[in-house]
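Bench notes, bay 3.
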Amino acid sequence: MVNTFVGAALLSAATVSVFGVERQAWACASCGSGSAAPLVLYPNERYKAYVGYSLASAFEVVTADQKIGTDNGPVKKETLTLALGARRGMFFGTISTPLLANSKGEEQEFLVADPLLSVYWVALAPDFTEPFVPQVQLSANYKHSVARSTYNSKSPANYIDVGGNGFNELSAQIDSWWAVTAYKFGLAALGTVPFEAEYNGRAVNRGNQIVTIVTTGYGFTDKHQVLFGWVRSQRAARESDGEVVQNSDELTQSLFLTGDIALPEGFALRLTMSHNGVLSPNKNSSRSVVYTTALTSSF
């Protein structure tokens, strides 16, 4: 399954009140794509809904010796992601479910991908009187594997029925975001630990993953901003029946460009283009171009 982590990290703008002064703030954990979940709530938002559509294409594979080859999987992957979130104090939780449509030629497969449950804690809220102090947010996430993966696909010739990686996963993240001034900057780190699963009579572990994200951007007004970021995803080698599968570690380096627009009545729009695997080196990974349009509504 092509990693669309960058396109999934989609957020809106929020209005916060600091010392009685109400202003727009683009302060969020996922402005640098640090969030594993597509939806993040702001301090003044009690409930929030998210609808996002992603189109991924131009797939290529990168081998263990860093050579680029043809991807035999679907030529187009469409994802409709639905998410809901609720806040209580400095904590909030979200749940999201992606619905997929994989296509290759005249063949098409519709499926439900792996749902994700996330819990967040705003450790350090934004403060307009301290522009060089970042907002800091921590979270924990659980992804439950329900979709078929390359390990149990019934269509190994083209993987048209694949919608996940085949493993339940726990992840934790920290995200720092400087957004009080017009110039934006963010740093984020996400660590993922998969649960062992059994396939074809073997105990398989996919390997732990570390994702690092650096983001910069500019807010043209209180309601519009553009962000540009670099994502480095590295995963340890797989294990099969307790033995390391040699040369199976993964590395993917990607770029993304995002535009945010705040709309009336609590709505917000985010447009994102990401090019996964565009930077070298990459290893045992895939390359693709992903376009995402997302709409959120706070209430």
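Next record in the batch:
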Amino acid sequence: MKYKIIYIHQRPYPYNQNFYELDSDYYFYFGHGALFDMHRDELFRNTYDFEICRGEVGVKKLKTKIVNGTKCLIFPAYHFYRIGTISFSLLKYLLTLAKKEKIIIHYTASPHTYEFYIITFLLGSKIPIFVTHQGGPNPYYKLQKKFRLGTFISYNIEKHISKYVFKYFSGAYYEIEYFKKITSSSKVYDKPTWGVDLENYKPIDKLEARKLLNLPENKKIILLFGKLNKYRGILNAIKVRDTLKKEFDVDILNVGSDETCPDYEIAKKNGVILRGIVPYERMKYYFSAGDVYLYLTEGEENFYYAGTGIAPLESLACNTPIVANTLHNFPFIDFTKAGVYAKTIDEAVEGIKYIFRNPERLSNTRSIIEQYFDWHVITRNLFNFYNDAIKIFY
């Protein structure tokens, strides 16, 4: 008999915003679960069936679609003030399924939702439950800032239900420390659980990439990708560039943003090269075209709980070094082989100067990604965890 993994993704961004075409494949096949599913090997697929589920506010009835051979389900959901989004039809589906089949639930993108609390309370003693944190502060952090009754209740709920969670995952060092505070450290996995597709992100000769993309061949290029908002750090990047211009002919290149982004106009007025949304298969050329990837994320919560960021890792896979203020998140990884840890604008300026002047010293940053962030390695580790859970529960 095959076991089944139910991957539940609650969207981390506001419930009333969409970033994909309605009813497209990506609308269904979305998030960490989809990436995880893409990289399962044959043994994994022969051992486990896989479903990707989520609740969606505004959906009137269950929607299903098969994408990449995987069943995807979207359930009607409701958003409650100070409670968040909950799908009662999803809860009913899980309760019914747990009676008929041998299942594992893997919940993402946050363990700090009431939907997750309810699922864990109702099913945690009966089936294995895994949870992945992908950003956002925990209740304990919030309580240190300001006492709120709702936050206090959430914190105590999380301490109580931790006994029902089989394994916690996060790419943020301070969230991992929080998990160790509320539960046994043996339940907390502190290695990467989000990877890079090494087949798609391959190094391209820098000059070849720049010619293909019609980028300046002789300038230094700082990369900063994704939607331009305060968390992306574009304002910091502009300050860094302006300082570097005293010694270097340098530009900032951005892809992944458009006119709807809060800081798009600021970037445009400040001469940032804006290439908009580009096809996935061309991203390796953009990453390879840069001299350095800069990520000075803004805001304390982002610094503590957003992880390393995915784009910096993809940059490393293309042998473009990074300067970032998020490299504290995996202290066991020697990121000095891949770039510079910089928490301030001045430190970032000095870090980029070092990379500009010594490119040969950071010419094989891909090796760190191959060692720690290869999706095939990550999925095999998860496969082993699921097998451990099956032995205990079934």
